[in-house]
Amino acid sequence: MQIRINGGRLIDPGHFDGLADILVKDGKIVKIVEKGDDSTPDPASNIQLSESRIIDASGKIVTPGLIDMHVHLREPGDEHKETIESGCRSAAWGGFSAVCCMPNTSPVNDSRQVTEYIRARAEQLNLVRVFPVAAISKGIEGKTLCDFEELKQAGAVAVSDDGNPVMNSRMMRRAMEAARDMDLKVISHCEDISLAADGAMHEGAVAKNLGYPGIPGASESIMVLRDIALSELTRAPVHIAHVSVAESVRAIRDAKARGISVTAETAPHYFTITETAVKECGTRAKMSPPLRTEADRKAIRQGLADGTIDAIATDHAPHSNKEKDVAFGSAANGIIGLETAVSLSLQLVAEGVLSLTRLVEKMSTNPARILGLGSGLRVGHTADITLIDPDLVYTVNSDNFQSLSRNTPFDGWQLKGRPVLTMVGGRIVFEDLHT
Ligand SMILES: [Zn+2]
User: Fold this and answer.
1) How far apart are CA 347 and CA 411, in angstroms?
2) pTM for this structure?
3) pLDDT digits (tens, 9 = 90+) for 341-360
4) From the CA of 240, how far away is ligand 1's center (Å)?
């Protein structure tokens, strides 16, 4: 069986951008036929039609499979919120051929057993690729360092205590040194919990108005600055998760200019909405770090535009109504993001913040580079491919989501552009081509 994807705009950042046909066979890209201006018929298009499927991709964008480097799949332990299966379906519908899942499950992924369980389950499902991120410390409690060698052997692609910061700087230093020696990236959830204290949303006018305790932006940027200092000290790379405030963007920009090995991601909600969403969406706009101010939102967009922020990741954090339909202060942190990420990110292109190529970089090429994974549309490469219809206008309806959870502030939004096909290793795992 071979699949031809014909007439789409292929974007492989740094390598190719243009109209082309792409031929997939036995899980690999076997041929790319560039379209000249006088598109003469390609003789290869006539071969073995009976064993071929031809997908008309005219008007569509064909990209390397998108990679979400920051999701929470909730299995093992909280399968009422999300399972590896529902999370993988959600990812496929969102155009992602691969996700990296954070370790704050129960039990925590701080052992060979849990890492191997996640990988085995994902393999059995045969949907999208799942790359486990294992814990830095046992139980993500910040007390005892995990055995990174064992975790890497089991298949972990990075380490993080995400959900919790590593508050102890000495422990973070040791983690960065150990991870560097194992060629693993440390992904840092930057939050000074002594400063964030019992805050529930961004500290500012909206929190004051609503009477909720606030979390200052400095609770994030202090830890970003600390981790930059530790990276400088240890010569170990560090990746900053879910950047939300202007001060963090500035710190990362300055560190990069000084040659420090720091990379960063942000999530679509931080460049799309602000603290005011809490007024309209309540707990469905509660996450950690919290939604910030308009000035922060602009700084995040500037950081994406100038390359300070390398990646867009969703921080997909499913919670059931049980954890969300409660008082704001006691509601769980997090929103789901896999099925709206591409559409929200395409708004950056429509608004001139990023070119399409830069967007594909931030959603595939750069996450792959940061974590040592594969990405690219080249002959011989594994056929992980995403098709996006940039013109499709639709209304977000969380009832139709593949995720088991519904905690999104974007319900009812009218958006333009979304994934219409996701291919993993030559297999189509999601398709909604409207043809
Ligand atoms: Zn986090």
Assistant:
1) 16
2) 0.96
3) 999 999 999 999 999 999 99
4) 9
